[in-house]
From TrEMBL:
Protein name, entry field: NERD domain-containing protein
One Pfam family cited in the UniProt record for this chain: NERD
PROSITE patterns: NERD (PS50965)
Domain annotation NERD: ranges: 41-156
Length: 316
């Protein structure tokens, strides 16, 4: 059973809100767009790997996109498969072209047909995840299960090469389609060992999961004042469409929308802070009427905090 399904990560949503509000092709926009594309590739890789792992859901407990806290910090795992005998960490990697695992220097090298690029060593990454999960489970009095780990290459056409101990790398690294088979082979070896309630462990982990987040403003050295304000056209993407009677109009594509401001407010809550005042709403949506801002906020399923004099999301 998949008890925690993969959803679009919070950071991707933030970048989707951020990029249209930066001056296009500025150094900041280029830097943020590069990071967005990198994270989007990773997300697509996780979807592809999850497809292959989903066949194990009939027997085992699966959690996708797991983020847990330990010692004041968080650590992430793309997929956790929990069986009656063991826990399996699967780290998804979405590389194209030819990749070389240099097991001697602990480095990954990608050749895309034009140039070579070095990356952090995925096996070291998943080994650290193993250690952190093991400590986390011990701190939460979980049954003492063996933990195995794999690096799943999501793109079937990616060529995998190894410098050093090929057998040792091959035990951990494989194309995504091969990972379920590797897990089943281990399960056959563990068949005689004592069983645990894997669903119970899965729900315990899910209850403690948090959503991974980063300060993307600090990462890209920007402040809220650097952002372009206004409402974005849902059709053509133009920013700063005009407020007219009971709606918004885009003069570029000549279309009118009743509630285009909802996406702009969502951008604000993602990027700036989880509350907004009437004045801030006027500035963000480019309104010249306080009454219009109030009407919009009232109709946006928000709660007015009379003590703080601001609008915030209603508690679910």
């Amino acid at each position: 059973m998949i008890v925690k399904k993969l959803a679009k990560p919070l950071l991707l949503k933030k970048y989707e809100a951020l990029l249209p509000r930066l001056m296009i092709n500025s150094p900041t926009w280029l830097d943020a767009n590069q990071e967005f594309n990198r994270r989007m590739r990773g997300y697509k890789g996780e979807i592809r790997v999850g497809y292959y792992l989903s066949g194990l859901a009939q027997k085992y407990t699966i959690l996708q996109d797991v983020c847990l806290g330990a010692d004041g910090q968080t650590f992430q795992m793309d997929d956790l498969i929990i069986s009656p005998h063991a826990i399996y960490i699967v780290e998804a990697k979405n590389y194209h072209g030819t990749i070389t695992f240099d097991h001697i220097l602990k480095q990954l090298i990608r050749h895309d047909g034009e140039k070579e690029t070095g990356f952090a060593y995925p096996i070291t990454q998943v080994e650290l995840q193993h250690d952190k999960l093991q400590n986390w489970l011990h701190d939460h009095s979980s049954p003492n299960l063996p933990i195995y780990y794999f690096v799943a290459i999501s793109e079937p056409s990616t060529i995998i090469k190894v410098i050093g101990n090929q057998q040792e790398v091959a035990e951990i690294v494989a194309h995504a389609a091969m990972i379920p088979k590797k897990i089943m082979e281990i399960e056959e070896r563990l068949a005689a060992s004592e069983k645990v309630q894997h669903q119970k462990i899965g729900y315990m982990i899910m209850k403690e999961c948090t959503e991974f987040d980063l300060d993307i403003f600090a990462q890209h050295k920007i402040t809220p004042s650097n952002l372009l304000t206004g409402v974005q056209c849902p059709e053509c993407g133009s920013l700063g469409i005009e407020r007219v009677h009971s709606g918004w109009i885009c003069h570029k594509c000549q279309k009118k929308y009743a509630a285009a401001h909802k996406a702009a407010l969502e951008d604000y809550f993602l990027l700036i802070k989880p509350w907004i005042t009437n004045t801030e709403c006027m500035q963000w949506l480019k309104l010249d009427s306080r009454n219009t801002a109030t009407r919009i906020l009232k109709s946006s399923n928000l709660f007015f905090n009379s003590k703080r004099r601001w609008w915030e999301r209603k508690e679910m």
